[in-house]
Amino acid sequence: MQLPSKLLDDAVQAFAALPGIGKKTALRLVLHLLKEDADKARQFGDTIARMREEVQFCSQCHNVCDQDKLQPDSPPLCSICSNRSRNQEVICVVEDIRDLIAIESTDQFNGTYHLLGGVISPVDGIGPEDLHFDTLLQRIEEQGVKELIMALSPTIEGDTTIFYLSKKLRQPDVRITTIARGISFGGDLEYVDELTLSRSLANRLPYESYLVNK
Amino acid sequence: MQLPSKLLDDAVQAFAALPGIGKKTALRLVLHLLKEDADKARQFGDTIARMREEVQFCSQCHNVCDQDKLQPDSPPLCSICSNRSRNQEVICVVEDIRDLIAIESTDQFNGTYHLLGGVISPVDGIGPEDLHFDTLLQRIEEQGVKELIMALSPTIEGDTTIFYLSKKLRQPDVRITTIARGISFGGDLEYVDELTLSRSLANRLPYESYLVNK
Lengths: 214, 214
What we know:
2 copies of one chain form a homodimer. The first copy, chain A, contains 7 helices and 6 strands; from the N terminus they run H-H-H-E-E-E-H-E-H-E-H-E-H.
């Protein structure tokens, strides 16, 4: 695809470098911005650049947070960690911010989070030293944490990460749990894979806990 | 979806305002940029803004073109219009730059283009005055154009646009043609709609013209 303008081509390349966006989609996005006012395109570009430059990461859980304008010199704390009404003794360990947002939108969890920044995956060259384990272990030591809820994807990598953490933990009184694995609400039994089905049979629960509205 | 940072939220909103990008995809793109260097995100933003501010439109065919650094004061001409080896007597009328790129990539057309910027569509409130008809009629008058190839989408709006132009044209010796409509190469006869099939029967051609490699 030969574009008649170098500027246009640069913009298409920039969009096409993003994940899941091909050259045709990139061209469609660029032509959309070309139809808009120049102000809007400038604003779009500035918003993206500003986000990357100014966004901060929580010094405690590694969640993103905005800079505190009242205390610019103190280590940044996200809105969840700085919320005194949330239970600091329960930490939900997640992979990244998308998982945090998913759990937050259930409105059912009142503890705090810890973002590992990924899971241990030798295939992708991600070892424990690339993830935020040290700050997690430090938090467990200092904050008197009672429970670690491992909300990682149910994959080999996720399980390896849970296993690694359980071996690293030197506090025997900290309970490590994982979110329940089983059949989704609205799921169809006949299409569920054998592993999930056999595990959900083995880990069966009293029927009262399955009711949606208790 | 509640995001923990205003900056992040702004960036997600900016991406989600683009066509075909929802909030979840926007968040994925933003998190990708967040993982990159700050320089890269700044460069991304600048590339987009610069494209919108500096890109020019050809004064003749309305194609996009870069500013001519040698002659900054002359009206901008795109690489196709300024190419002397292209036949200025044949103009291919297209809707927008995407159609131009599609035709250019066939490497079969040696004439020039004219971008209308859309098609007449009363439903969307687009009338003839919103499209680049005046410059087209002026070109036909001044350049001794012999043929207008209407390469518009085969829709009611496309046909209306062709009809409007044929009525507006005051030069009876200019030939107006449309690109052939019929069955695509590799298409399956049984799935072709009745209108296309009946038209392609009526407009049948000597078999030699169907051969791909003549």
